[in-house]
Amino acid sequence: MINIILPVDFGEKTDQLIDGAVKFAKEVNGKICLIHVAPTDIGFAIGDMGYQYFPEVEENEIREELVLLNKINQRVLAQDVECEHILKQGIAKDIILEYADLKNASYIVMGSHGRSGIYDVFVGSLTKGLTKSSKIPVLVLPIHE
Which of 3, 124, 141, 142 could form a disulfide with 105 if both were Cys (CB 3.0 to 4.6 A apart)? Predict the structure, then answer.
């Protein structure tokens, strides 16, 4: 069985991305390795006193993201596809590539919907960064409105 890395960000297109990844995993007899990369600055805020760190904000956000990740994991398992998940903090591209290496993955599956720049509108800045840096194939699924 091959490992397929599936980064998720819980955005509005996540459901379409999961559906496409599950379909692909079934076609290649693959296991989905879900990963969500949380930013390292989610507990920081700017106020009158400058930058302040609120660990309880970060802990609550991480806890909520783990709940969402667990739900996606259960959704994939319910479709008869093996699945595991992990949440890490850091720079998304670097963490995803490290995880792919750790899991000896055969593919990384990403969505094509981006947020800025003409190339990024069609592909996405993270997807673009992964396709340039990855040693394994990055499958880009079209995500439409």
Answer: 3
